[in-house]
Specification:
single chain, alpha/beta, 7 helices, 37% helix, 17% strand, globular
Length: 190
């Protein structure tokens, strides 16, 4: 049995829809980690929408990753086997049980840092798994990280990294709004 530990990035989100910004993050992570798991969230506990088209979102992400031929990137549907609420810590713990020789780090967009203190057992995520932050235009992560450190206990033990990466400026909510208005969004979708 191979007992070599692998460094793995967990990139989780609603991906409603999965766009070129998401794909750029996945490509970058695939160059930095042994493996990348893209987890399509069933329902974000901090949002009131998102659970309605899980299978469609999942199949779309699978299609994009397959077309990109990213051999160390895997689309995981593990959340469909988790009892609600769908907390990220539950997802990380479930993946750790499923893949015991993999060391996970959670990857989030810079916009998530401002509300990370509202996540279920957020300090456990920072201590046990770690957080990789992808900068987003309009979100200064430095003050948000400083605020987290004020609220948390023993931040010197946290695993927290901010990547230096340029991601196309687009969000899924912007794409949904453009679609609602009948605008062409094909240039935002992989």
């Amino acid at each position: 049995m191979n007992c070599e530990l692998m460094e793995v990035a967990l990139y989780s989100g609603s991906f409603n829809p999965f766009h070129i910004g998401h794909l750029e993050v996945v490509k970058h992570l695939s160059r930095c980690f042994d493996k990348v798991y893209v987890v399509v969230s069933v329902q974000n506990p901090l949002k009131t929408t998102g659970a309605d088209n899980f299978n469609e979102r999942l199949e779309n992400v699978k299609r994009v990753i397959k077309n990109e031929n990213l051999t160390n990137v895997f689309v995981e549907d593990i959340e469909k086997n988790i009892t609600p609420p769908y907390y990220t810590l539950k997802t990380l713990d479930a993946l750790s049980l499923k893949y015991p020789f993999e060391i996970f780090s959670l990857c989030v967009g810079g916009d998530c840092v401002e509300t990370f203190h509202k996540w279920h057992k957020w300090e456990t995520i920072l201590n046990s798994y770690g957080l990789i932050v992808i900068p987003r235009k309009g979100y200064d992560v430095k003050p948000a990280i400083a605020e987290l450190k004020k609220q948390g206990e023993e931040p010197e033990y946290w695993h927290l990294t901010v990547l230096d990466i340029d991601v196309p400026e687009i969000s899924s909510s912007e794409i949904r709004e453009k679609l609602k208005n009948g605008e062409d969004v094909s240039h935002f979708l992989p």
